[in-house]
């Protein structure tokens, strides 16, 4: 099967640790402890909780899980082995985060992001901006099979345009992620779209066709919501557009040639080039274009008045690795034209590693298997089976902090139950995607939530309610299950009672 995305490679053969001695009450102790500690920590630190304290709380949650494991005679070696496997599986994501930071730095100093904002301010009317953002991100994500690359490229530019127009960052991020995850779900190049039918025992393209029944209505509702928002929001930035354009033009050399770089990156991804290679090439091309089109800016960042080999080298390397700020005559643009480079991604990387420690220990002591097993026992009807699947995926996104485990674990646990009920595997694979893939971005300590929050520079709490597609998808699946709409039966089985 074709697979292309910058997200970490999924673990189709992931081993689910079983511990028959562990009770459901014991399995839930670390979950309740983590939720309580995180809630209090966010109450105390507010928006600064992700600066480090939440990361430590995740480690404390892992410690609670380890204590439960020790009382159930789970060896320290086994727990550490599962942690190591979890962290190892995120290696690709961590490297991509670093490269995204590097790319954003060179795309800023080269004028690529400012050019996107400059032309976007002239093309995207504030009234249709949010709906247009959904459509743009959906198209790119379908073509690339990657919500992560979509957010890291066009998503960053749309955030800048929305900010300049005076539109809430949360709204813009919600529109970006709604479109990006719609495309990710429907693309045969997406790893999660390949993983879900593999876990359920179905076929890729049958899975995609079956997903359209719930996914198309969800994206339609999402677009309607953003169209309504576009007509109701106060876009105070509209009156300042001329001033913003003048300041951008005075600071950067804006021209159409700058768009060659993002076009090359998108082409590489579509042509199935490795994501890290595509981002690296985008970073290097950004640096070359910076030297050609923005020599004064590069020299200034490099600590000199004129561009030479030393100031050029230092300027590009600084843009790639550390904080970069480009001053303009507009304070709003000063905040907009800043990048943390690779160092700006370290907080997100720290969060992901700590989340993987918690998820690894939870898996190592058998808690993830026990929680999913208990949910399965509640499934007495067809609707109950769907609801248990959705609940399991949501719980694993919160506890395991990994969307792949949120597909693999329920997929393995529920496949037999769906077959025994005479339900085709497309029912399970669709439910896994509708609840496991898309909701991962709504959990701050999940790899997806941490990634998108770090890349877009918008907290999960700010965009969650506006990520309409993401939180509406599981409800749509449950609605279809409740009214038995498009519930496909196995060809050789009688229809089960609901």
TrEMBL record:
Source species taxonomy: Bacteria, Pseudomonadati, Bacteroidota, Flavobacteriia, Flavobacteriales
InterPro entries with a match to the protein in the record: Na/H_antiport_NhaC, Na/H_Antiport_NhaC-like_C, NhaC_Na-H+_Antiporter
Organism for this UniProt entry: Flagellimonas profundi
Membrane topology per record: Multi-pass membrane protein
Entry annotated with the keyword Disulfide bond: no
Family, similarity comment: Belongs to the NhaC Na(+)/H(+) (TC 2.A.35) antiporter family.
Domain Na+/H+ antiporter NhaC-like C-terminal: 179-483
Primary localization class, coarse: membrane
Membrane-spanning intervals of the chain: 21-43, 55-72, 93-117, 123-144, 210-231, 252-270, 276-293, 349-368, 463-483
Protein name (record): Na+/H+ antiporter NhaC
Keywords tagged on the record: Antiport, Cell membrane, Membrane, Transmembrane, Transmembrane helix, Transport
Subcellular location(s) per record: Cell membrane
């Amino acid at each position: 099967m074709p697979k292309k995305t910058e997200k970490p490679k999924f673990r189709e053969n992931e081993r689910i640790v079983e511990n028959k001695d562990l009770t459901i009450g014991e399995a839930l102790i670390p979950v309740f402890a983590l939720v309580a500690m995180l809630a209090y920590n966010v109450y105390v630190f507010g928006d600064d909780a992700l600066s480090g304290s939440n990361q430590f709380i995740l480690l404390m949650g892992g410690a609670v899980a380890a204590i439960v494991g020790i009382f159930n005679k789970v060896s320290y070696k086994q727990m550490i082995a599962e942690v190591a496997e979890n962290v190892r599986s995120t290696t690709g994501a961590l490297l991509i985060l670093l490269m995204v930071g590097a790319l954003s730095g060179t795309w800023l100093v080269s004028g690529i992001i400012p050019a996107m904002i400059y032309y976007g301010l002239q093309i995207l009317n504030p009234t249709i901006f949010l709906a247009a953002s959904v459509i743009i991100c959906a198209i790119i994500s379908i073509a690339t099979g990657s919500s992560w690359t979509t957010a890291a490229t066009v998503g960053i530019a749309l955030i800048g345009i929305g900010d300049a127009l005076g539109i809430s960052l949360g709204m813009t991020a919600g529109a970006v992620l709604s479109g990006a995850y719609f495309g990710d779900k429907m693309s045969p190049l997406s790893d999660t779209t390949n993983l879900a039918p593999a876990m359920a025992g179905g076929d890729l393209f049958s899975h995609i066709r079956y997903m359209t029944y719930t996914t198309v209505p969800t994206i339609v509702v999402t677009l309607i919501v953003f169209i309504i928002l576009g007509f109701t929001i106060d876009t105070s930035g509209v009156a300042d557009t001329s001033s913003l354009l003048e300041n951008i033009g005075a600071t950067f050399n804006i021209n159409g040639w700058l768009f060659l770089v993002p076009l090359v990156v998108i082409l590489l991804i579509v042509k199935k080039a490795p994501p890290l290679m595509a981002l690296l090439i985008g970073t290097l091309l950004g640096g070359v274009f910076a030297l050609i089109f923005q020599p004064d800016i590069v020299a200034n960042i490099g600590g000199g008045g004129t561009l030479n080999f030393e100031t050029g080298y230092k300027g590009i390397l600084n843009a790639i690795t550390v904080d970069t700020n480009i001053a303009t005559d507009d304070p709003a643009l000063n905040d907009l034209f800043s990048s943390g480079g690779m160092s700006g991604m370290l907080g997100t990387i720290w969060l992901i590693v700590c989340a993987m420690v918690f998820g690894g220990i939870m898996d190592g002591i058998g808690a993830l298997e026990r929680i999913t097993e208990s949910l399965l026992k509640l499934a007495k009807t067809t609707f109950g089976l769907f609801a248990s699947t959705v609940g399991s995926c949501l719980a694993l996104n919160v506890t395991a902090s990994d969307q792949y485990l949120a597909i693999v674990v329920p997929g393995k646990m529920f496949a037999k139950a769906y077959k025994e009920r005479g339900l085709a595997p497309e029912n399970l694979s669709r439910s896994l995607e509708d609840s496991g893939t898309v909701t991962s971005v709504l959990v701050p300590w999940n790899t997806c939530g941490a990634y998108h929050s770090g890349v877009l520079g918008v907290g999960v709490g700010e965009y969650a309610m506006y990520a309409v597609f993401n939180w509406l998808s599981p409800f749509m699946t449950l609605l279809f299950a409740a009214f038995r709409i498009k519930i496909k039966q196995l060809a050789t089985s009688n229809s089960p009672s609901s």
